[in-house]
Amino acid sequence: MEASRFSRVHGSSEVSAAPEKTQGRTESSKPPRPSEQQSRARIKAIPSAMRQMGWFVSADLMDRWFSHGAWVLSNGWKDGTDIKASQLSLAHVDTRIVSMAWVVGFPRARLAIDELMNKIRSFPTIDQLRRRLRDSGWNGSGVLHLGHASMSAVQLDDMCQVNFVSFGGPFNTVDDMYGALGKAAMKMAFIGRAEVDPSTRRQRFVISDIAFYLRDTYDFNGEQPLGTWSEFGVFNKTEAVANILFDGLGFDWHGEPIGAINNAAFRRYRAQTGWGGDFILYSNVLWKKFTLTIDLS
Question: Which of 29, 240, 258, 265 lies in the 20 to 30 Å Cα band around 226?
Fold first, then answer.
C-alpha cells in the first residue's frame, strides 16, 4: 500500500508497515507526538487541503495570514473602537480576496442584505445617519452631499455606514464561506444629500444609492477548535454535525490526519516562526440604485 503524499513529504512512516516489536512497545502503543517542525508543516498544509475541497477564498485568506510577519490584532482594532478603517496600514487590511460577487452566492448572505433593506427606515439607521451627517459638518441647514458612488468599502465604513447585521455561525452549511469567515458583519451605507424641505422646513435625507459590503477580522484570538484535517479527502457531513455539537466549529477528513487543529496551534506557529499576521478584511462594494427620502426631523 503506497503511503500518502503527505506521508512522503513530511517523513511519516508507511501506514501499512508492520509494527516494530521491541521491548516495552506493543502494537497498540500510541505513535509519538509530532515534532514542532512536523506540526508547523502540517498547519501550513491546510490551505492546500482547502483547495482540494474547492474552498479557494478560505485558502487565500489563510495563505495571506501565513505570508505576513507576526502581528496580533487587538480587541480595539477588532471591534473598530480604537482606529478608523482609513487609518489601517495596508499590512493589516485586505480588500482584495473577498468579493461581493462571491459573498452573494451564499443564501445566508443574501438574507443579511434583505434584513438590512428592511432596516432602512428603522430608528437605529436614522440615528446613525444623523451622526454621520454631523461628523461631515452638516448643521441642519443648507445642503450636504454625503459620499459618492465610487467609494471603497473602507471609505464608506468611515463616512457613510448606517447599519449592519451579523450573520454566519457554527450551524451553517459547511462551505467556503464557513471556512473563510465563520461569523461576519454585512454593512449598509447611504449615498445622497441632506437638505431642508423648502415647503415644510423639515430636515430630510434623499438617498440616491445604497451600498452593501462585508467586514470581518482574520485572527486566532481566544480558544476555538478548528477541526481535524488531512491534505485531501471527502467531507463527512454526519461526522461534522457531531463535531459541531460537541466541539464547536468542526471538520472531519478521510485520509492521514494533519491532526486536531485549534486557534492555539496557529498562535504557537506564530511564536515559533515569527510569521502569521492577523488582519481586517473588507469586501468590495455591492451598489444598489435606490431613491428614497428619509425624514430626519
Answer: 29
